[in-house]
Structures are given as C-alpha cells and as structure tokens.
Design a protein that fits this description.
Two copies of one chain form a homodimer.
Chain A: H1 10-23, H2 36-43, H3 47-59, E1 63-66, E2 70-73, E3 96-107, H4 119-123, E4 126-135, E5 138-148, H5 165-173, E6 177-188, H6 191-197, E7 204-214, E8 220-227, E9 234-239
Antiparallel strand pairs in A: 1-2, 3-4, 4-5, 5-8, 6-7, 7-8
Chain A binds a DNA duplex through helix 3.
Chain lengths: 240, 240
DNA sequence: AAGTGGTCTAGACCACGCG
DNA sequence: GCGTGGTCTAGACCACTTT
C-alpha cells in the first residue's frame, strides 16, 4: 500500500484542531474540553496521543487540567518576560486605560527600530500606531508599534478585540506570539516623551525595544516602549 | 500485600537520579546519557516512563536530544528572563569581569530588599555580598546579594565555582533556580552608585530587584542590581 | 459507582546517524 | 544494518471529583 503516511503527526492534528476551536470561541474560556476518552474516540486514537496534544496546549497556556474533573479552557495570559501575550496590561496589577494617540497608518519604516528588518519587511510598507497607557489617569507608558503590511492586513484601532492588539491577532487571525527579543535601557526623557508622559525632560525613563516573533511566517511585531517607572515599576515573574 | 506503594513516582525517581549524576559531574557536560533502552533495563521500566523523565530534564535544560544519536548533557544556560541561571554574564554578549567589592559577611537584613521576607528569614541571620561587573574595564553593573544563613551555609567568595554563585549552588549544593520575580525601575544614580559605576550623580540607571526561588525549601536569593545601560543595554529573549 | 485525569506497561513501527 | 530517539497502540490500575 502507498498511504499518505506519517508526515502529519497525529498529536499535532489534534492539538491544532483544539487550538483552533479555542481561538475561534467554539470551546469558550471557562468551559471544559471533551474528556480524553471522548477525544480518543473522535480521532480514533489512544490516550497517550491525546494526552500529548493536551500537554502542548497546557504548556502554551490554552487549558488547565483539573484532576477528576476535566480540562478547562483558560484565558491565555502566560507571563513570558516583561510583557505578556495579553499585552501590556497583563504585566501590571492596576487598572489600565489605553488611548490610541496615533491611529494605524501606513508609513516608511522608522529607523528607530532596534532590530534589523528582514528583506521582505524592508520591501513592504509599514503599519504604525502609537498608544499611551494611563494608570489612575496618569500616563505611564508611551508605546510605538510597527508591523509589515505584506505580512498582515491593515487593522484599524476600532477593530481591536477588547482594545487589545494581541487578542485581535489570536482570535481574528489565529496568530500566536511565539516569543520575543527585548532590549532595555534607562534613558533620560526626550522632549516628546516627557510631554506625552507629563514628566520633566531628562527624568529617568525605562526604554524597552521589543521584537515579537509570531506563528505567522514573516510576521514580526516591533515595539518601542517608554515607561515612567517612578510610580509603577515593571514587574515580571518566570518559572523553571 | 502492603508495599511502599505509589507515592513515589517512577519518572521522578529516574529524573532525580539522572539530574543528580549530572550535577555531580558523573554525567559530564558534553557526554551522552545511557540510551533510553538501557535506562529502561536499569530501572526495570518502559520507554514511556523513561522518556517522561528525560522530557523533564530537557525542559529544565540539562540535556538535549539528538535523533539517532542520543541524549547529550549540556551546559545549563537557559535564558530565563533578564538574568540566566548561569548568572549575569549569560545575559550579555561581552566579556565580563567580576570584582567582589564586599566579601560575603553576616549582617542584619537590609530593608532595601524589595520583597517581603518570610518569618524564617527574618529570624535568621543574613549573608550579604556585593559585586561589580566590568565590561572592557568599565563598571557596568553594581550588584547586592542576600540570602538566609539558616537556609544555606556561609559560602566564601573564593569558594565560588568559576566565580559564579549559581554554579556553586548547582554543583556543590545541588540547588537549582526554579524561577524569579523581578521589579524594574529607571532611576537617577545615587552618590554611592554613581561612584561605583563611575558615572555622574543623577544619570539614568536601570534598577532591578530580584527574588530567585530555589529548589531548596525556604531558600530565596535576593538581588539588587544597578545597571548602566548607556553603553550596554540589557538583552533578553524568551520562547513559547 | 461512574467518570475524569495521572501513571505505567509491553509492545510496535518509523526516521535518523553512523559505520 | 544496527542502535538511537520519535511516534503510536491497546490496554491496566490508581487518585480525584461528582452524583
């Protein structure tokens, strides 16, 4: 026999299937997945394989397991460095208000980006938007964002799911953050930053340059953050 | 029958056994572990269980797997946030020289520590030491360190394995870092910090407060870092 | 008692690296 | 060709939660 053979791994098929159902809300947050045995039947396989798929989803933060009860779909908010996949609000304990100060628009790539662009990115147009994060009505973070228009369609700010760019990517475009590279510097506030954060020029500011790697080939998200940490330090935990 | 029963999980037994052999150098860095089948025989178990144990060691960064060849013991240098388990040098690309400016000594707990101490820690004496990290003979990081004497014996600076405190913990005391909590602030350099980092008072400095959680119950390592990021920014990558 | 996830057994076949 | 790790099957028994 010929057969379409082994190239597709069964646990990946199951994993991707469930992940997609979660991302599209067919397995809503808070609900329980079908039991491992049910999944076995549906995919005509064994628990070892199903559990392998679920283990991946567990690691990626899509579900949590409750012994004797089931596997529950959870809000995906892994803390993964300084920022979380949920975006900035996840890394701070307070209520955060987000103001889009420059709506998404197409510009030339900004040379301020701290990471080398790929050739495809250089050739593409660039989508840029700027936001300010307020805590207790005080501006705390000024944030610039860039991505390649060729790799991801233009998304307007009012299309953001719950105001979050990352949630939009995950739920509307099935794109996940795979990781990031960051550079941190302590710098004096420039005139523009000082104005937008309502502080004095020269005050110490935490400057973070980020490149998020995504599950979509060719798509990186670039960020440039200016954080006033005098009142609200950046917190971060990690495990293992 | 009674039997000492299930409380000890087999994969944990295997995992701990191998981990200890690695930490004590009986499975040296660069060498290959016995094959999965050999381990099966030694522990009278099946590959599923052995693979589970190895998967853990893989995740924890003790080994890497080479398909068709074996499982290789590697230098444990996971990037885990801003600092690595190898210590500060791992997070910077340059040659780092470490100078112990205050040798380990017993003091009162310093109220500057940004995290609440446990009751056991408060009751215990505190071991403190200070180091400066130089890059190209320029001081870049000033680092204060504290830990509870009750939780870990006094260790002199000249007993540090390859000058590294973390390597000492892992190799001599079989203690691993399980995770950390950090707080980051951008602050103006104080007089003391400015002097030790050879910069002007008031220059922006990245201040990092860290609490490392360890595999030894009750033992936390507290750190207080002042980084001059003008020349050398802090870099950091993460995955998944 | 029934159903769920957690651990484990005893195999099988495949893909990779090397001699 | 042989040994290695990678995937998978078809069960078993246990611990936990719920009815």
């Amino acid at each position: 026999m010929k057969s379409e053979k082994t190239t597709t791994k069964k646990y990946l098929t199951i994993q991707d299937y469930i992940k997609k159902r979660i991302q599209t809300g067919k397995f809503p947050v808070g609900s329980y997945l079908p039991s491992e045995n049910e999944i076995c039947n549906r995919f005509k396989t064994t628990r070892t394989t199903v559990r392998r798929a679920l283990d991946e989803l567990l690691k990626e933060g899509f579900i949590e397991k409750e012994h004797g009860r089931g596997s529950k779909v959870i809000e995906r908010g892994n803390s993964l460095g300084l920022l979380t996949v949920k975006g900035f609000s996840g890394s701070i304990d307070y209520e955060v208000q987000t103001i889009v100060t420059t709506h998404p628009k197409i510009i030339k790539w900004d040379p301020v980006i701290a990471f080398p662009l790929t050739n495809d990115e250089k050739k593409s147009q660039c989508v840029y938007f700027q936001r300010v994060r307020n805590i207790n009505n005080l501006p705390v973070v000024l944030e610039n964002n860039w991505y390649s228009l060729d790799a991801l369609q233009f998304i307007k700010a009012d299309e953001f799911v719950e105001g979050s760019f990352f949630k939009t990517l995950s739920q509307k475009h099935l794109i996940e953050i795979m990781g990031a590279d960051q550079e941190l510097r302590s710098i004096p506030a420039s005139k523009e930053v000082a104005k937008k954060l309502q502080i004095k020029i020269g005050n110490p500011i935490l400057h973070i340059s980020v490149r998020f790697r995504t599950s979509k080939p060719g798509l990186n998200l670039y960020g440039d953050l200016y954080c006033n940490t005098t009142e609200y330090p950046i917190r971060n935990s990690f495990f293992l």
